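Following up on my earlier thread - several people asked me to post the actual chain instead of describing it. Fair enough. Here it is, all 300 residues.
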Amino acid sequence: MSIQASEVGQLAAGAVADILDRATSGRSVADYAETTPIAWSVIAEGGWDRIGIPESADGGGASLRDLAEVALAWGQGCVALPFLESTWARRWSTAAREESGPISVSVKRSVPKAPSPQGENRGGLAPYGAFPGVVLARSIGQGDDVFEPAPDGVGDPFAPSLCSSLVPWTSQISPEATLELGVIWAAEAVGAAQHLLNLSVEYAKTREQFGKPIGSFQAVKHRLADMHSDVQYAETAVIWASLEPDNSRRATAYALDTAIEVAQSSIQVHGGMGFTWEMGLHFYLRTMLVRRQLVQGLWA
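Reply from S.P.:
Thanks for posting it. Predicted structure:
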């Protein structure tokens, strides 16, 4: 069994990386995390949200391993756009392919439910439920899937780049589709961890203390080395999860936990600056934490 993404996956990941670079290059994530620098039309007109559809249905024929490769690339941007959810939904649902706009789902919350303004508990958390024009799936992979405009919900501001909202119901998702969505979300988190590692290495080369770059200090060197190893381990876990369904949940959980540890270490490497809103590292960490909650909700 080859563990490499196919040509389709590699080309799609490269294209996604190029889209992100052109939209965000040279800008701090703090400048765009609460909006979106990429219009949905860029994704739709390029057909990137259809790469997971089988070739027999005029799609790209990408495998889960390929979609994990794409999610690794997408995660480096921390962009408020339901690209991964839409791609996954169209892969699993014929009805979703008839929808022209972005798609997302509502997942059972793995944390205590927040009360609604009416005093009732909300049932699910919908990533991108507050994104303009999004439709939410009542079901995915059930054969007669239904989609409807996202209801007015209570916004969840913790991770601004996810544009999440609380809605009074959760999507019904087939077990196979559930596993795939967890893998894709974990791959996105690992991609974010890779980006934070890159930022940390560059910061350690330029930030000076006592007249020397902090990267020359043994404690910082060791932390960066550990981060590098952790990113590699997490990426390996995601690949494993995408190829072996029986081990998917275990590998997905490991990848998410490890990516979050890398994000926390990145903030430490940046010192006091790492905690500032303007540096923006917290946007990645917040997104990872919510993704972990969402994956736990999928399995609940």
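Residues 73 and 297 are 24 Å apart (CA to CA). That should answer part of your original question.
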